[in-house]
Write a structure and sequence with these properties.
Layout (H helix, E strand, L loop, with lengths): L7 E3 L5 H8 L11 E9 L7 E8 L6 H9 L10 E12 L4 E8 L4 E6 L5 E2 L3 H17 L7 H5 L3 E3 L6 H14 L21 H13 L2 H12 L6 H10 L3 H14 L4 H13 L3 H14 L4 H13 L3 H9 L19 E3 L24 H4 L8 H17 L1 H11 L3 H12 L7 H6 L17 H4 L8 H6 L10 E2 L26 E2 H29 L8 H13 L3 H12 L5 H14 L2 H17 L6 H14 L1 H9 L5 H19 L5
Helix pairs in contact: 3-5, 3-6, 6-26, 7-8, 8-9, 8-10, 9-10, 10-11, 10-12, 11-12, 12-13, 12-15, 13-16, 15-16, 15-21, 22-23, 23-24, 24-25, 25-26, 25-28, 26-27, 26-28, 27-28
Pfam family, one: ChAPs
Protein name: Chaps-domain-containing protein
InterPro entries: ChAPs, TPR-like_helical_dom_sf
Length: about 675
């Protein structure tokens, strides 16, 4: 593959970047930040003045000091810099198992020294076992920090080179062997933010393994690994079953799940996998009872409750879906470990000639692009983790039954402020008369739920009153604003047994539930999304009727595209994304076009979006995106390599740009031809 240019971030003080990395080791909680590569340069004609430059990198083989020293050696010669030479280099790679920073110091010319630094800054010996752990962490980080195609991850950390850590069957064997040897320590690495407690089958190692298998389609390799591990612990059957299902070996998956659940009847990972399979086969009736058992097995896990809510949605039992969603334990979002670097002296981000193309040029993006304040304050765009998944469920219900019906069901199952005030007045006139609902409401000492619940800021206080894209349009065409529920301050996640959730008559105040504060806020956020979307579409229709041009900035179109996609209005989302792209290139908008073109099975549009996204990623030093690799792989499987190559070649873009995409496709083809996985 074409090697991208090397970004250079210049230090204000020599070695300040390395010192900043050492200072943050104690704060790392996940897989750790990308690898740090620090170079010391000095003028060719002088030895007195030295400068420090650095960049970050993922995907480099970190199995030994020799492989990391080899990477530093590739940086010692720069055809673009004739005045400075590299005199030393330091490669830092974090070992999340042992919580050590592995270091390789290279003197040019001269010696190579390897060692590691612990959280206290003490120097330790780098052993073979530590290098094995470091290698596995580096591969998992490469997948974790790879971009999804939208550009969000790339733009978050300046100057990161991203390489594919596994480009051959030999490197695959090396990765899977390391994963097998360290598998039972995987829980030490932490887990995705939706998981309350990392365990044997839910952690960053298992997530990385499943991501790799999903991206490359190397199902036989995954099945072989999990078959061996399952002999040591039957709980791993849930991972094996998931790979069987992905490999279209559903009969084997069903048999395996049946046998494993007989042995481990209350293993929530097995039950969740079985419930998900039944749900996807449109057998919600079977999935329901399984999901209830899964909740009983793991009542403090968000995933089990969310699955039960999904199944109630598929069964059109909207009241139970809302009640189950209300019972979900919500966790504070834990972002990836990111480097905390001092303010640089300057930043140099060169581009390779192979990536220069007007159609993917986003260098003219204006940070001060005009964006209407209402669009800036759409809170749903910032949701992550459990809050994002809960919001998606809420939008799916809205899509199926409409906003008005959702509000009616909400008022049927949850205590509303107005009726609470009325009930409170009634109770106050009858001293000594209390019921369970009012007792909870009157509790003088609110408690947290113990799951890191985050109270979202209410958009009703932040958003400008009566002002959407235009206040006139708001007056002409509006949707009903939801009243607030009485939000419970006493949360007992998992206290509602699934069997006790039933379609009761909600007319009695005593039969209603207290709505969680976070869910009440989600309704208000959804209202704001719907309100702005409705005004936008009304304005658009009126401008078209009058044959007037509807003008927005590129960023406004991008935000409107995301808004429409969040609300499942896909045609309108594509329209907004394309309007954005007609003004300037946006990786987020292009990713939206790619995703929606895949849904429509429009092969030509998919290829066009892929070419531009691959080229844009190369421009920003990334030759690895699992999302794009997966899309190309599926495209080749469905359409054939010859047809895909022909469509790519027929695109009206420079040949050097098309070659980058051909290289991605060649990697996918190589994996398909090497073994039985294809």
């Amino acid at each position: 593959m074409v090697l991208p240019a090397v970004p250079e971030i210049f230090e204000e003080e020599l070695h300040s970047a390395v010192e900043a990395r050492a200072d943050t080791l104690q704060t790392l909680r996940e897989l750790g930040p990308p690898d740090l590569v620090h170079l010391v340069k000095q003028p060719i004609k002088s030895t007195t003045k030295q400068v420090g430059i650095y960049h970050h990198v993922t995907g480099i083989d970190a199995s030994s000091s020799a492989s990391l020293a080899a990477y530093i050696n590739t940086l010692t010669y720069s055809p673009h810099d004739k005045t400075y030479k590299v005199v030393s280099g330091l490669y830092c790679c974090y070992n999340a198992f042992s919580r050590l920073d592995m270091r390789v110091q290279v003197a040019i010319p001269g010696t190579v020294e390897s060692y590691c630094i612990d959280e206290r800054g003490d120097k330790r010996v780098a052993t073979d076992d530590l290098w094995l752990e470091t290698y596995l962490c580096s591969v998992l980080r490469a997948y974790s920090y790879a971009d999804d195609g939208s550009g969000d991850t790339i733009k978050k950390i300046v100057g990161v080179r991203r390489f594919n850590p596994i480009t051959s069957t030999e490197s695959e064997h090396k990765f899977l062997d390391a994963a097998e040897r360290l598998f039972f320590n995987g829980w030490q690495l932490g887990s995705d933010p939706e998981i309350q407690v990392p365990n044997l089958v839910s952690n960053h190692l298992t997530t990385g393994l499943l991501d790799y298998i999903h991206t490359t389609g190397r199902y036989a390799s995954g099945i072989n690994l999990f078959e061996k591990l399952r002999t040591r612990d039957p709980e791993i059957s849930s991972l094996l079953a998931r790979v069987y299902i992905s490999a279209d070996e559903e009969v084997k998956a069903v048999q395996l799940l049946h046998e494993a659940i007989q042995e481990l009847p209350m293993d929530y990972s097995l039950l969740d996998c079985q419930a998900e399979f039944c749900e996807k086969k449109s057998r919600g009736d079977l999935a329901l009872e399984i999901a209830k058992r899964s909740v009983v097995s793991a009542p403090s896990e968000f995933g089990t409750w969310a699955r039960l809510a999904e199944i109630y949605v598929s069964l059109e039992q909207w009241d139970l879906a809302l009640l189950t969603l209300n019972s979900c334990p919500m966790f504070t979002y834990q972002d990836k470990d990111a480097p905390r670097m001092p303010e640089p002296l300057r930043v140099h981000l060169p581009a390779m000639p192979e990536t220069i193309c007007d159609e993917i040029d986003d260098s003219n993006v204006d940070d001060l692009e005009l964006v209407h304040p209402t669009l800036r304050k759409l809170h749903a765009a910032g949701f992550k983790g459990t809050f994002l998944k809960a919001y998606i469920l809420l939008t799916e219900i809205t899509k199926k039954i409409g906003w008005d019906q959702l509000l009616r069901i909400r008022s049927q199952v949850f205590v509303m402020e107005e009726e609470y005030r009325h009930e409170k007045q009634t109770i106050s006139q009858q001293p000594g008369s209390r019921n369970a609902s009012t007792t909870a409401l009157r509790s003088p000492s609110p408690k947290t739920n113990g799951h890191g619940e985050v109270e979202l800021s209410s958009p009703s206080s932040d958003a400008p009153n009566g002002d959407a894209l235009t206040s006139e349009a708001d007056d002409r065409h509006s949707i009903e604003k939801p009243g607030h529920t009485v939000a419970s301050e006493i949360v007992k996640a998992g206290s509602d047994e699934p069997d006790q959730l039933h379609s009761a008559t909600y007319t009695q105040f005593q039969n209603k539930r207290l709505c969680e504060r976070w869910l009440d806020n989600l309704f208000m956020v959804l209202y704001e999304d719907l309100r702005v979307y409705t005004i936008w579409r009304t304005e658009m229709a009126q401008y078209r009727q009058q044959q007037l041009l509807y003008k927005k900035s590129a960023e406004e179109w991008e935000i409107l595209g995301e808004l429409a996609e969040r609300l499942h209005h896909f045609d309108e989302a594509v329209e907004a994304y394309e309007s954005c792209l007609s003004i300037r290139f946006s990786p987020k908008a292009m990713k939206g076009v790619l995703k929606l073109s895949e849904m429509r099975h429009n092969v030509r549009d998919v290829c066009g979006a892929l070419i531009r996204l691959v080229t844009w990623q190369y421009r920003w030093y990334s030759e690895f995106s699992p999302a794009l690799l997966y899309t190309i792989r599926k495209l080749i499987e469905e359409e054939g390599a010859v047809k895909v190559r022909s469509i790519i070649q027929g695109t009206s873009l420079p040949q050097h740009v098309l070659d980058l995409t051909h290289q991605y496709a060649a990697l996918c083809a190589a994996f398909r031809s090497s073994g039985s996985d294809g």
